[in-house]
Amino acid sequence: MRAKLEHDQALVCFQQALELEPESLDALMGMAWCYKWIDRLDRSIESMRQAYQHHPDVSVVLYNLACYYALDRNLEQALSWLGRALRMDCSLAKLIPGETDFDSLRNDPAFRHLLELSAVE
User: Fold this and answer.
1) pLDDT in tens, 57-71
2) Which of 10, 70, 61, 66 has its CA nearest to residue 38?
3) The domain containing residue 7 runs over which residues?
4) Do residues 24 and 78 share a domain?
5) pLDDT tens-digit profile of 66-85?
6) Residue 106 and residue 113: Cα distance in Å, rounded?
7) For a Cys staple, 85 with which of 16, 54, 62, 121, CB 3.0–4.6 Å?
8) 52 Cβ partners below 8 Å, 6+ apart?
9) Mean pLDDT of 12-27
10) d(Cα 103, Cα 17) in Å, to the nearest integer?
11) In Å, how far from its chain's centre is CA 85?
């Protein structure tokens, strides 16, 4: 219960920061992270899509979208965003083995294929 309260309080701070700077990548990513921990993946995804609108050239935004879609068990969207993120920055591939957000995808052939392709680049 305490952790949820802390995330709720952090969300208020991030929302205030976003009001001051509507395109703040830090605020949007922070909000998405907090929403993840209070089981609101829909809001995590919404925050990261907003971040993507303002920062389409930041690879970690695409990577995080892939993470949240994977947690939401939306395979198609997760693979799409992950593929785009890896094409933008192949060094992100080194994060994937330790990324528990992708655990639901690890046995998927399309996910493995994507990892193989990123290892070649």
Assistant:
1) 999 999 999 999 999
2) 10
3) 1-40
4) no
5) 999 999 999 999 999 999 99
6) 11
7) 62
8) 61, 62, 65
9) 95
10) 32
11) 10
